[in-house]
């Protein structure tokens, strides 16, 4: 957060004053607040947030909704509005904050949650949520009354929606004043992102409130909170692992792009084309993701090829070509130990094999070539032909498709070519200008270099645009 503007300071001060007005009535004599219930809920709320400050649990309590809200939602359903607002304050003040200034952010969060809880509790009370839970108004101890299902879902759902509306309104306001974002940008998408996670945690809060009112009392409510907390932790672990996978992929691709400046963006586009083919073939989602990885990393073995060969001006000698043709094996060795790649590793090794057995590195033919490799081979050739290179301009999509169809059955699997053709007819191919399309400040493509340094053959059998270049069997990006 940049230095707070006058407008942001005034906005935060107004929200703080409003939150104080909402919580102070709970402290007045004769307010009728069930302090035992309020104190237990406030302690639980603060305890969950304190756990969130432990490094191994930070993501668990902050998944989706931004905090661990079931306890707060239970307070909304069980307590009068001023007491529900007060319950939110201790947890917000001790909660995990990553960015500075931490004190300001904690105070802001406390005021924001207090206002949201106060509004949600008013909505719940207006719809007789306390009576629908079973028990006396204000949550005065356990009761033998049975909750009024399904009606109780109405006040609970309305309270969650009101909570989300207040949070998003206040979040948008702070973005507009503190971050100086335009009003339309500040509020765009906030509510849609807020509602689903809050609905899930609101349901857990409803179950907590029902058990709290049951003959078993507050202790039983922990049986809802514990599995909810564990599920959040597992979900956070999954996302951390996925983020680590993505970071690994990005690092490898960036290394390749830095080494071979004439193929930047190519790997990402091959990944996208591979996904289009996979979806057209009806593959399961986990295999689609694997194919995306395969497409993105298919040329990672170039890291093992001398840079002078990748950037050489002029034709390659047979010896130099043989060195470059080792890049699939280099790539396979590099990713051998990355377990989450699965079938993608075989695609990295075999994406230059040809259906007629004339490819490399092992001369596999037909069904011997792994399915992932056959998909990536088509995606690789298609993007290479439709991208501007140092030695020629990009071909039109229709021309590239005709070339793929001409080579289907000899170099490419006809089924993969047909899948890409159908996908292109359905979705089109929109390639943004990337750094492999080198331009001068006026937007002109530079003249061709003396020879191929980024890939003879582009993965196709005989690319017509490669005038004066030796057409070796399928050396490509």
From TrEMBL:
GO terms for molecular function: hydrolase activity. Residues 263-385 form the HD domain. Keywords: Hydrolase, Membrane, Transmembrane, Transmembrane helix. Residues 431-477 are annotated as: Disordered. The chain crosses the membrane at residues 69-95, 107-129, 149-170, 190-212, 218-236. Residues 241-436 form the HD-GYP domain. It holds the Pfam family HD_5. Residues 459-468 have a biased composition (Low complexity). The keyword Hydrolase applies. Signal peptide: none annotated. The keyword Glycoprotein does not apply. InterPro entries: Cyclic_di-GMP/3'3'-cGAMP_PDE, HD/PDEase_dom, HD_domain, HD_GYP_dom, HDIG_dom. It comes from the Bacteria. NCBIfam families: HDIG. This is Metal-dependent phosphohydrolase. The lineage of its organism: Bacteria, Bacillati, Actinomycetota, Actinomycetes, Kitasatosporales.
């Amino acid at each position: 957060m940049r230095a707070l503007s006058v407008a942001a300071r005034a906005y935060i001060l107004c929200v703080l004053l409003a939150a104080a007005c909402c919580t102070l009535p709970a402290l007045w004599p004769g307010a009728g607040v069930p302090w035992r219930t309020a104190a237990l809920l406030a302690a639980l709320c603060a305890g969950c947030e304190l756990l969130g400050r432990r490094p191994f649990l930070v993501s668990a309590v902050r998944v989706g909704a931004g905090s661990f809200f079931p306890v707060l939602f239970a307070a909304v359903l069980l307590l009068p509005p001023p007491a529900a607002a007060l319950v939110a304050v201790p947890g917000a003040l001790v909660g995990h904050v990553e960015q500075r200034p931490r004190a300001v952010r904690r105070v802001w969060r406390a005021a924001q949650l207090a206002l949201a809880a106060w509004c949600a509790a008013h909505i719940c009370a207006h719809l007789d949520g306390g009576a629908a839970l079973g028990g006396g108004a204000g949550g005065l101890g356990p009761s033998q009354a049975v909750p009024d299902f399904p009606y109780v879902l109405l006040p609970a759902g309305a309270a969650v929606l009101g909570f989300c509306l207040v949070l998003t309104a206040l979040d948008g306001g702070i973005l507009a004043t503190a971050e100086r974002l335009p009003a339309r940008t500040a509020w765009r998408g906030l509510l849609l992102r807020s509602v689903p996670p809050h609905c899930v945690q609101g349901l857990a809060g409803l179950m907590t409130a029902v058990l709290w009112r049951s003959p078993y009392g507050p202790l039983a409510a922990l049986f809802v909170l514990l599995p909810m907390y564990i599920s959040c932790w597992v979900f956070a672990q999954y996302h951390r692992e996925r983020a680590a996978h993505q970071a690994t992929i990005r690092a490898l691709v960036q290394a390749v792009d830095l080494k071979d400046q004439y193929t930047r963006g190519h790997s990402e586009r091959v990944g996208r084309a591979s996904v289009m083919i996979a979806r057209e073939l009806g593959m399961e989602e986990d295999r689609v993701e694997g194919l995306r990885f395969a497409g993105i990393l298919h040329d990672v073995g170039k890291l093992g090829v001398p840079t002078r060969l990748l950037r050489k001006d002029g034709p390659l000698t047979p010896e130099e070509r043989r060195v470059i043709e080792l890049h699939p094996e280099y790539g396979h060795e590099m990713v051998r130990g990355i377990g989450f790649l699965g079938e993608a590793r075989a695609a990295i090794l075999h994406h230059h094999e040809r259906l007629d057995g004339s490819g490399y590195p092992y001369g596999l033919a037909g069904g011997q070539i792994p399915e992932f490799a056959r998909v990536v081979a088509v995606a690789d050739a298609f993007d290479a032909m439709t991208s501007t290179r140092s030695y020629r301009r990009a071909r039109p999509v229709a021309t590239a498709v005709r070339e793929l169809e001409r080579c289907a059955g000899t170099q490419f699997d006809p089924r993969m070519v047909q899948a890409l053709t159908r996908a292109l007819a359905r979705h089109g191919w929109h390639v943004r200008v990337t750094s492999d399309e080198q331009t001068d400040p006026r937007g002109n493509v530079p003249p061709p270099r003396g020879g191929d340094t980024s890939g003879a053959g582009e993965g196709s059998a005989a690319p017509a645009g490669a005038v004066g270049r030796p057409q070796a069997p399928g050396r490509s990006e």
